[in-house]
Design goal:
Elements lengths: L17 H7 L8 E2 L5 E2 L5 H12 L19 H14 L7 E5 L6 H10 L2 E6 L2 H13 L6 E5 L17 E6 L7 H15 L11 H4 L4 H15 L4 E8 L2 H13 L4 E9 L2 E9 L1
Parallel strand pairs: 3-4, 3-6, 4-5, 6-7
Antiparallel strand pairs: 1-2, 7-9, 8-9
Helix pairs in contact: 1-2, 3-4, 8-9
């Protein structure tokens, strides 16, 4: 399959200007060097280098200047996260006053940050982990995004929408980047394979704590729970969407969606380097 690259509107789709990124985030400078191919780059197996690179990408936005979170938390790759925002914008092209529900926002609060910086959208962002929400709230406060982003805690790990949706909620879309793995052991095994490929067997290069990486039953269980709960709150959001990493999960989700009365089901492919994923979207 030919790599179609990032979304045309993605400001990082022409590669990285490391000279500019170091200006945006001076802490990146110590990790930038000429690699064995003669290109200026970083060591992508070094989680600190990856974190500072992504800070530089984020700080290229004039209204984002602080992005501090624990090294234990997942450091999201900004270009790929931004693609989800742009594809969502395409999906909602006829909408005004867009308000998004971000499920599992994490300590980095990355989708709301990008959604506000790119499109000035409003967000309600949820997470089950209180420490993550504390980091997220500090990021919101430090960048003066309080009027755009509201945080809510999910107290029940068995629930996704239930317990965080309020009676008068009305969203243009929900978005979600679900945990991929079924258990901590499966996540560790995947990391061993990944770090072997990167030539570094010490650490996960993007980090990540338990609730960010795994969910009982894995991605498939999470998605089917999300789909079922969306059928209980049909009018809370015009579109329900999620990233889906495994192609086979799309087929089972589409079958179940028909049984639950979904009116429209669509799949948006996303490409970044060799990685192919997709956004699944449905509405009632």
């Amino acid at each position: 399959m030919k790599d179609k690259g990032l979304h045309p509107k993605n400001k990082f789709n022409k590669g990285y200007n490391f000279e500019q990124l170091v200006k945006d985030n001076p802490a990146l400078k110590e990790y930038v060097a000429t690699n064995s191919y003669g290109n200026i780059s970083i060591d992508f197996s070094n989680p600190k280098a990856v974190k500072e690179l992504n800070k530089g990408l984020l700080f290229s936005y004039e209204n984002i200047s602080v992005w501090d979170f624990s090294d234990e938390n997942l450091c999201p790759p900004i270009p790929g996260r931004l693609d989800y925002i742009h594809h969502l914008s395409d999906l909602l092209s006829s909408e005004e006053n867009i308000k998004i529900l971000d499920i599992g926002t994490g300590a980095t609060c990355i989708y709301p940050l990008l959604g506000v910086a790119e499109y000035n959208w409003n967000f309600v962002a949820t997470d089950i982990d209180l420490d993550s929400l504390d980091y997220a709230q500090d990021i919101i406060d430090d960048n003066n995004f309080d009027s755009n982003i509201e945080l809510r805690q999910q107290f029940n790990e068995q629930q996704i929408l239930k317990g965080v949706l309020e009676e008068n909620d009305s969203f243009s879309a929900t978005m979600c980047n679900p945990p991929f793995y079924k258990s901590a052991e499966e996540a560790k095994g995947a990391n061993k394979r990944k770090t072997r490929n990167l030539g570094n067997n010490a650490v996960r290069n993007f980090s990540g704590n338990n609730n960010e990486l795994w969910y009982v039953g894995g991605e498939k269980a999470f998605l089917h729970n999300y789909l079922y709960e969306s059928s209980l709150y049909k009018t809370a959001s015009k579109w329900f969407t999620s990233l889906v990493s495994k192609k086979e999960n799309v087929e089972s989700l589409e079958k179940s969606s028909k049984k639950l009365g979904v009116n429209e089901f669509k799949v948006i492919p996303m490409h970044q380097g060799n990685k192919v994923t997709r956004i699944v979207c449905w509405k009632f």
